[in-house]
Amino acid sequence: MDSFEGINEFVAVAESHGFSAAAKQLGCSTSHVSRQVSRLEERLGVALLARSTRMVNLTQAGQVYYQQCKDLVIGLQQANEQLSSEQIQLNGTLRVSAAGAFAENYVAPALMEFAKGYPELTVEMDFDTRMVNFIEDGIDFAIRYGRLSDSGLVARKLVDRPMAAAASPEYLERYGVPTHPEQLRHHSCIIANNDHWVFEDNGKSMGSIRVDGRWRSNNSGAVVNACEQGLGIVYMPKSSFSDAFHEGRLVPVLTPYWGKGSSSWIVYQNRRFLPMRARLAIDYLVSHFANWQE
Predict the structure, then answer these.
(1) What is the number of H-type helices and E-type strands within the chain?
(2) Looking at the structure, do residues 167 and 252 belong to the same domain, yes or no?
């Protein structure tokens, strides 16, 4: 078994480009990681890492060795995960970063159901739109909407989020009902994430229309409330308006031109570093929303 010692630490350093970051991911000390990797290099008789004061890079031999070792580590992880969730007693704290009405109204209740099955598990949800540092902030995964930048993180699609435009009956009575997206240039629009709205005509994009208005907010609840108060027209994922449409507080407008929108995603670090509670929660959410419709 001595020949396997240090491999897990080496792969962690290779993927995080640093001993401190690898130690945080593995839940051990930096000195332990450094010691294990050094012993591995001694046994192999070759330098796997090129160390500097600011960064750790793979040597040519280290790159070749990493490509072989990462599959071994992932294979071992997958073997361990064959245990059924019923046999696992989850504990500790699951930390989730989320933002938006979808996360508040749908993801949070789903995680509550998940937590019911594990009495020893604590769940913390932080509703914030800022970009998180998964290691420093101790976040297991995040729920995000829209296009994702190529950050090196893993992203799994949760649901597609088609768009809808809406306004209050009072606003439409006072300012009229728009019949084409171009008319929005002459209306007060409530702006959430951006002021360039993309509509479609028979499934084809009409390009973006720049809108302006009296109310802006990155909180979807505040946007919907402003719309209900008659401050303008809003264009957001349809699920944001479910109750307001049903109860007549808001009225759909420009229905033929609604776009297919974007998607909501679960975003997290390399799967190999996720604790079991995070892996099971992610799998639960993906399964829960598999057949979800707006």
Answers:
(1) 10, 14
(2) yes
Residues 153, 33: Cα–Cα separation, whole Å = 23
Residue partners of 3: CB distance under 8 A and separation at least 6 = 43
Q: What is the CATH number of the domain that holds 66?
A: 1.10.10.10
3-class DSSP state of 97: strand
Q: How confident is the model at residue 80 (pLDDT cuts 50, 70, 90)?
A: low
User: Do 182 and 205 share a structural domain?
Assistant: yes
Name the pLDDT band for 1 (thresholds 50, 70, 90).
very low
Say yes or no: 6 and 125 in one domain. no
Q: How confident is the model at residue 56 (pLDDT cuts 50, 70, 90)?
A: confident
* 182 and 254 co-located in one domain: yes
Please check whether residue 258 is in contact with residue 178, taking contact to mean a CB–CB distance below 8 angstroms.
no
Q: Are residues 157 and 273 in the same domain?
A: yes
Same domain, 16 and 132: no
Do the domain assignments include residue 293? no
Closest CA to 99 of 67, 56, 142, 36: 142
Tell me if 237 is assigned to some domain: yes
* Res 86: pLDDT: 47
User: What residues make up the domain containing 157?
Assistant: 85-161+263-288
Q: How do residues 214-236 score in pLDDT, each as one tens digit?
A: 999 988 889 999 999 999 999 99
What token pair was written down for 116? 């019911």
**Cβ distance 136 to 16 under 8 Å?**
no
Contact in structure between 110 and 139 (CB atoms under 8 Å): no
Beta strands in the chain (DSSP E): 49-51, 56-58, 92-98, 121-127, 141-145, 154-161, 163-167, 189-191, 196-201, 204-210, 215-216, 233-237, 251-253, 262-268
Task: Flag whether pLDDT at 85 surpasses 50.
Answer: no
